[in-house]
Amino acid sequence: MKDDETQNAGRQVHPTPLLDELEDGPWPSFITGIKRLRDEGSEGNQKMMNDLLGQLNHSYENRMGYWKGGTVSVFGYGGGIIPRFSEVADKFPESKEFHTLRVMPPAGYHYTTDILRKMCDIWERHGSGLIAFHGQSGDIMFQGCTTENTQKAFDELNEIGFDLGGAGPALRTAMSCVGHARCEQSCYDEVRAHRTIINKLLDEMHRPALPYKFKFKFSGCANDCVNAIHRADFAVIGTWRDDIKIDQEKVKEHVAEKGRKYTIDTVVSMCPTRAISLNDDDTIEIDNRSCVRCMHCINVMTKALSPGDDRGVSIMIGGKRALKIGDLMGIMVVPFMRLKTDEDFDKLEDFAERVVEFFAENALEHERVGETIDRIGLPAFLEALDIEPDPNMVNHPRTSCYVRTDDFDEEAAKWFERKAREAGLQISAE
Amino acid sequence: MKDQPNTPRTPDEVGVPDPFQYMHPVMKANYGNWDWHERPRPGVLRHVAKSGDVIYTVRAGTQRQMDVFTIRKLCDIGDKYADGHVRFTTRSNIEYLVADQGKVAPLIEALESEGFPVGGTGASVSMVSHTQGWLHCDIPGTDASGVVKGLMDMLHKEFVQEKMPNRLRITTSCCQINCGGQGDIAVNVQYTKPPKINHDLVANVCERPAVVARCPVAAIRPAMVNGKPSLEVDEKKCVCCGACYPPCPPMQINGDDSTKIAVWVGGKHSNARSKPTFHKLAVANLPNNAPHWPEVNDVVRRIVEAYKADAKHWERMGEWIDRIGWNRFFEMTNLAFTKHHLDTWTGARKTMNMSAHLHF
C-alpha cells in the first residue's frame, strides 16, 4: 500500500482527514455524499471521486484551488460547458478532467421524481454522480465529466428534453420565481415571460457573441424572490396600478388575532410611505396614490390584502455585482407594462430583443449593460430604446447644474403631449 | 484503420423546458388563481386557491452539491410520502408538494429521520446561497461548501424554527466577484495582497491588453521583465480585488498571507418596506481557517444573536441597523469600526452622513 493511500472497504482510497471533519453536525454533508459515490457509485464514479476527494483534501491542506479552465464544448454549441482541468493531475489522475455541464432547469424549478431519477441515471453513467440544484447561475450543475463523456452526457440529457445553459459572453440562463404556480402575490405569468424571452433569444446563449454576459430574471412581485434587481441585467418585476384589494372582515380577524398594537407596529408604522391607517373599527384605509407597491402589508396580512387587478410588470435594467465599476442595481426603465394578452407578451419580447441588440451593438468588450448606461448616461439609453423619461425612473431629479437645457421647452412639450395622449386613451377606453 | 467517425448528433435546441409537465396537478389546475397562504408550522406552507383547492409545501434543507444517492433518497421520500412532485428554491432547499394534509406529518418525519432538516420558511435562517469553491472553481480563495456546512451546523436550530425578527439570508462567496450575491450577512473572500506574478508565464498565457483593461483602478501596465514581455502592478494603487486573476492565472491572487475573509451585513433583495440595499462591511481580515472557519462562525454568530435579540418583528438586518445606528451595531457585535469602513470608491460621498443626525 502506498503512503498516501488508506484502506477502505477492501480498496485503496486517498486519506481525507480534513474533509472527514465536515461529516459531523446536523446539516447534510456534501462530503458524506461524495464519499458514497467513491465507495458505492458506478465504477467510473468511484475512481473519479476518490481522486476528486484527494484533490479537495489537498486544497484544504494548502488552502489553494487546483483547477484551470480550457475549451470543451458539444457539437453545435459554443457555450454551456465549464471546462476544468486539474493542475495536480499527476497526484489525482482520475479526476484530471472534471467539467461541469450547465443545464437549464424548467422555469420555476419544477420537477417530478421521475425526471430527477433519469438525470441521476445519466450522470451516474457518464459523469461523476454529483449534481447541484442549482448553481448561482440558475443552472442545474452536472459537476464532473471527462472531455470524452461530455457529448454523451449532453446527448442523453438533451433527449429527455433538457438543453445547455449559458456561459461566457452570452445570454445566460434565466431564473423565475414559483409565481403563478403557487403564489397569490404573483402579478404576471412568469413561466410564459421567462420561456418567451429566453427561447426567442436562444441563439445568443448557445453561440456566445455578446460583449459580455447578459442575464434575465423574473420575479412575480416586488418581494423579488429571485434577486433580479441586484443580479440581472434585465429584471422583470410584477406590479399593479390600481388599488390594493382589501377584505375588511379578514382585516378585523387579523387585528383580533394579532392585536391592535401589533398591527399598528408591524403594518401601519412600517408602511414606507405612511399610506395606511387603522380605523377605529379595526378596518384599514389605504391611500393608494401614495402606495409604492412594496408588498410589505400584503406579506403580513396574507388573507386580508392582495395586489390589485390591473397587473403587469416593471422592467429594471443594469443590475450586476462589483466588476468593474462597482455594484449596480437595475434602474427602473419601464415602470409599467401590462402583461396579459398575446400582444402584451409580443411587446415584452420585442423590448427584450431591442435591449439585447442595443447591448450587442454598443457595449464595450467585457462591459455589462449597466456599465454602458453609466458611461453614456440614461437619457442616451432611453433615446436609443425609444422610451420617454418618467419620474418613476429617479429618486429625485438632478441636483447638478452642469447640463445644457436650451431645448427644455421642446422636451416639456413632449411631456405634455404624452400626458394628454394618456388621458385621451383612458377616456376613450372608458 | 479506425472506424468511420460517427456523425455527431445535432442538438435539439429546446431551450427552457416547459415546467407544466413536471408541475403538481393542483398547482397546474390553479395556475395564476391562488388566493392566500399561511404557515401552519415552520417548514410548511399552505396555499389556498380561489377554487378552494389546497396545496401543502414541505421545505427541507439539502447540501446543494448532491450525490445521486442523496437525490434518489429524496425521490424515494417524494414517491412514498408525497405526490412525486418537487421543486427547488433559490437557496437550494427542496420543496415537496402535497395535496393531502394527512401526508404532511409522515413526510416531515421521513425527511427528518433521513437527516434533512425541515424549515427555511418565514422568519428563519434559510440555507446559505453559495459558490463552488475548491471543489470546482478555477479561481477560488476558499471552499464555500465547507464554510456553509459549518455555518448551517451552527444555525441549524434557526433553520427549523421561525424565531428570527424576519427572514435572515446568508451568502458566501469564494472570491470578490461575489457569485453568492448580496445577503443580510455575506461571508466573502477579501484579498489583502496584490497578485504575485509569474513573469515566465504571462506572455504565453495572458492576453495582456485585456488584463490591463480589466483592472478597476488602472494599476496594471505592460512591462518587460527579465527580457520577457509581462505585466507589472503598481502596488500602491492596487486594491487587491483579484479581477486580473481570471484572465491571467499567472497573476496569482490566492495565498496564505493574502486570502482572508470579510463579513458584510445589511444586503436586501426585497423591496418590502425599504428599497433593496447592498451589504456593508462589518469586519475584514478573518483567517481562511479550513475546515471549520471558527473565526468566521464566531462573528456570524455574534451578528445573528444581536439581530435576534434587538430587532423588531419584520425588520431585516439592514433595517434594524438603520434604526439603531452603526455605533450600536459595532458595540453590540463587539466589532471594530476602522478607516476601512469608510468607502473610497466612486459614489463614496453618498455613503457618508451629511446631516446632524447622530446615534449615541
From TrEMBL, chain A:
Iron-sulfur recorded as keyword: yes
Single Gene Ontology MF annotation: sulfite reductase activity
Keywords in alphabetical order: 4Fe-4S, Iron, Iron-sulfur, Metal-binding
Domain Nitrite/Sulfite reductase ferredoxin-like: 96-159
PANTHER family: ANAEROBIC SULFITE REDUCTASE SUBUNIT C (PTHR11493:SF54), SULFITE REDUCTASE [NADPH] SUBUNIT BETA-RELATED (PTHR11493)
Top-rank taxon, per record: Bacteria
A GO-annotated cellular component: sulfite reductase complex (NADPH)
Stretch list, region Disordered: 1-24
Domain Nitrite/sulphite reductase 4Fe-4S: 168-386
Gene Ontology BP terms: sulfate assimilation
Name of the protein in question: Dissimilatory sulfite reductase alpha subunit
One of the Pfam families matching this protein, by short name: NIR_SIR
Residues spanning the signal sequence: none
Species assigned in the record: Aliiruegeria lutimaris
UniProt cross-references to NCBIfam families, sorted A to Z: dsrA (TIGR02064)
From TrEMBL, chain B:
InterPro entries per UniProt: 4Fe4S_Fe-S-bd, 4Fe4S_Fe_S_CS, DsrB, NiRdtase/SiRdtase_haem-b_fer, Nit/Sulf_reduc_fer-like_dom_sf, NO2/SO3_Rdtase_4Fe4S_dom, NO2/SO3_Rdtase_4Fe4S_prot, NO2/SO3_Rdtase_4Fe4S_sf
Keyword Protease set for record: no
Domain 4Fe-4S ferredoxin-type: 229-258
A single cellular component GO annotation: sulfite reductase complex (NADPH)
Alphabetical list of PROSITE patterns matching this protein: 4FE4S_FER_1, 4FE4S_FER_2
BP-aspect Gene Ontology terms: sulfate assimilation
UniProt-recorded Gene Ontology molecular function terms: 4 iron, 4 sulfur cluster binding; dissimilatory sulfite reductase (NADH) activity; electron transfer activity; heme binding; metal ion binding; sulfite reductase (ferredoxin) activity; sulfite reductase activity
Pfam families in alphabetical order: NIR_SIR, NIR_SIR_ferr
Assigned keywords, A-Z: 4Fe-4S, Iron, Iron-sulfur, Metal-binding
Protein name as it appears in the record: Dissimilatory sulfite reductase beta subunit
UniProt source species: Aliiruegeria lutimaris
Lineage, highest ranks first: Bacteria, Pseudomonadati, Pseudomonadota, Alphaproteobacteria, Rhodobacterales
